[in-house]
Amino acid sequence: GASDFDLANLHWQRGRAAQELGLANTRISELRKTISLGGGSNPSRVWKEMCRAEHDGGNIRLAIEACKKAISLTPLNKQGQLPGDHASLVNLYREIGEFEQARLVIRDMEGLLLRLSRGKHWEEKHFNWEAELEDAIGRVEFSAGHYAEAEARLRRAISHKERDNLHQMDYANSRTNGPTQEQAESRLDGMTAWLAMTLAKQGQLAEAEIHARKAVLNAIGRGGQDGVQVGKMLQTLASVLADQGRFEESLALLVRARLTFQCAGTIADSPLFARNSRMSAGSLTGLSRWGEALAEYEQAIKIVSDDQQLTARFNVPTIGWIRSLLALKRPEE
């Protein structure tokens, strides 16, 4: 029969196929089988992909552990994988509100790029590495409310990533150990979506919508209308439309995104669903549908109730939440 090594690689490729179809749970299952069989030909890459799979499945804590494992297993001759791993770790800490940890990882990342700049692969790989750093910093600056700085960082990230993708696409799918074309292009979609949100925060709504729609169409073009990545991009577009006061359109996209997450097998207590509920509440508030809005705000907290940090984040009242309570004559709450 086949060896554990060969079986591990087989399950790894099945996991990649599940990713392209947007099947979060199937992908996690296949990657776990790969890991149980020893990780195949590139264990650190498998753990890297497990990090994203757990994130897409909605378990950020497991995603953080997988990312740390990927970093710890990366051999000396594959240090070029580390900027992407560090960027993922920054974003995971940012998502759960651990900003000091995120900034510590950024400092480690800056030191890593300095070391890599002295190596023989710098000329070939530096656009990708610099894109990862700029994107990581941009997202943290966004969360800190520094939108102009975030915009500058994200524009540089996109420029670097576009140049790297042109170089990488010729052979991305001809190899089995490195990132696939889908993985490379989805990173660019994520950067584009964050730029859209940053522009919207600064009132540049027309340009924000252009970037948000581009990210959605790119994601659909690669994996069809279902899949976690498509759902995320739909939520970004919904956010931009809500900022324009187009609440009906925003709400329709959020309903579609929720169904997409469900079809992909995202776990029920995923922050993806909590974020969807909170965004839906905002659009419902804009439509003066106060009771439905309040139910969505409460649902968001219920979804993440098992995680103390996430509960605290989603329990912060918004203007829409307060307006809903006042409209329903429940000011004491």
Structure commentary:
The longest helix has 22 residues, at 122-143. The protein is built from 16 helices and no strands. It is an all-alpha fold and 333 residues long. It is globular and about 65 Å long. It has helices at 4-20, 24-36, 43-57, 60-73, 82-95, 99-116, 122-143, 147-168, 181-201, 205-223, 228-243, 247-264, 271-286, 290-303, 308-314, 319-327.
Keywords:
single chain, 333 residues, mainly alpha, globular
Quick structural gist:
77% of the residues lie in helices and 0% in strands. It is mainly alpha-helical and 333 residues long.
- Order of helix and strand elements from N to C terminus: HHHHHHHHHHHHHHHH
User: Which strand-content bin applies to the residues?
Assistant: under 5%
The averaged pLDDT comes out at 90
What overall geometry do the principal axes of the alpha carbons give? globular
Query: How many individual β-strands?
Result: 0
The largest β sheet comes out as: none
Q: Give me the oligomer status.
A: single chain
Range of helix content:
over 70%
* Number of helical regions: 16
Give the end-to-end Cα distance, rounded to a whole number of Å: 65 Å
Structural class, by secondary structure, is mainly alpha
List the helices and strands and how they pair.
Layout: H1 4-20, H2 24-36, H3 43-57, H4 60-73, H5 82-95, H6 99-116, H7 122-143, H8 147-168, H9 181-201, H10 205-223, H11 228-243, H12 247-264, H13 271-286, H14 290-303, H15 308-314, H16 319-327
Helix pairs in contact: 1-2, 2-3, 3-4, 4-5, 5-6, 5-7, 6-7, 7-8, 8-9, 9-10, 9-11, 10-11, 11-12, 11-13, 12-13, 13-14, 13-16, 14-15, 14-16
